[in-house]
Amino acid sequence: MRLSTQPDWQYLVRDFYELYQTGSAGGSSKIRSHLAEVRRLLGKVFEDDPTIVEEEAVALPVCDHLSRALSNATGHRTAKLARSLDAVRDHLRWQYGYEKVPKGLTQKYGFTEIMGPRGPIFSDRIILGFVLFGPKTTYPAHSHKGITESYYCVSGNVSENDVGVYAPGSLIFNQAGHSHRITTPDREPSLLAWAWVGTAETLVNNKMTFAKT
Questions:
Q1: Pairing of the two strands 109-116 and 171-174
Q2: What's the structural domain count of the chain?
Q3: Per the record's keyword annotation, is Calcium included, yes or no (predicted)?
Q4: Fewer Cβ within 10 Å of end Cβ, the chain: N or C?
Q5: Angle at alpha carbon of residue 80, lines to 138 and 181, rounded to 5°
Q6: Whole-prediction pTM value?
């Protein structure tokens, strides 16, 4: 099946596009360029009308917090994106992505991809997804070689590298190779939408590893 025949997936991608269209770059030329590149690539996705491959859904323990995280987006500029994610939640494959996951993280973390080389919406130039954290989570330091990354905070609050607190609607920008560590509040989950931009080879062959401590 094609993207053009699946309204729920179309809405989800359009709501992603809208975030990157209306979000501020804060005067940063590098962030402005990244926002524009994400929009360009998503525009190309709509032109190409890629296939959608819906595989059997996979849940992780952290998914127990998903309903709360989606509800907490109400009243924020990310609410529409949260509703669109909710519409396809029964088709999502949640995963850890790392060969070795710290024991304390298995109950509090998981991500799902909605677009990329592995689908469900095919693209070999951009990956879109969501990462869900339970309360009181520390996501260890890691980086992505050759991949420019941005997070939009959908709900909850997070801190990256202890340099600030990002509320719903905030953008976090990580240039390729930048090491980053994320922490979440004590009582509420946090849901982030993310985009990776890189070459087709880099996106297909990316290996997720935590920094050695």
A1: unpaired
A2: 1
A3: no
A4: C
A5: 15
A6: 0.93
* Residue 144 · residue 196 · CB < 8 Å: yes
Q: Is 16 exposed, middle or buried (0-12, 13-18, 19+ CB in 10 A)?
A: buried
| Maximum separation of any 2 CA atoms in the chain, in Å | 47
Q: Is residue 41 part of a domain?
A: yes
**CATH number of the domain where residue 158 is located:** 2.60.120.10
Query: pLDDT tens digits, residue range 107-151?
Result: 999 999 999 998 899 999 999 999 999 999 999 887 778 889 999
Query: Using CA atoms, how far apart are residues 193 and 178, in angstroms rounded to an integer?
Result: 18
The verdict on residue 211 lying in a domain is no
* DSSP assignment of 154-188: EES-EEETTS-EE-TT-EEEE-TT--EEEE--SSS
pLDDT tens, position by position, 134-145: 999 999 887 778
Does residue 210 form part of some domain? no
Structure tokens at 21: 């269209």
CA 80 to chain CA centroid, nearest Å: 15
Report CA torsion sign: 88, 68, 95, 154. positive
DSSP SS3 for 207: coil
User: Exposed, middle or buried, 193 (CB in 10 Å: 0-12/13-18/19+)?
Assistant: buried
**Is position 76 within any domain?**
yes
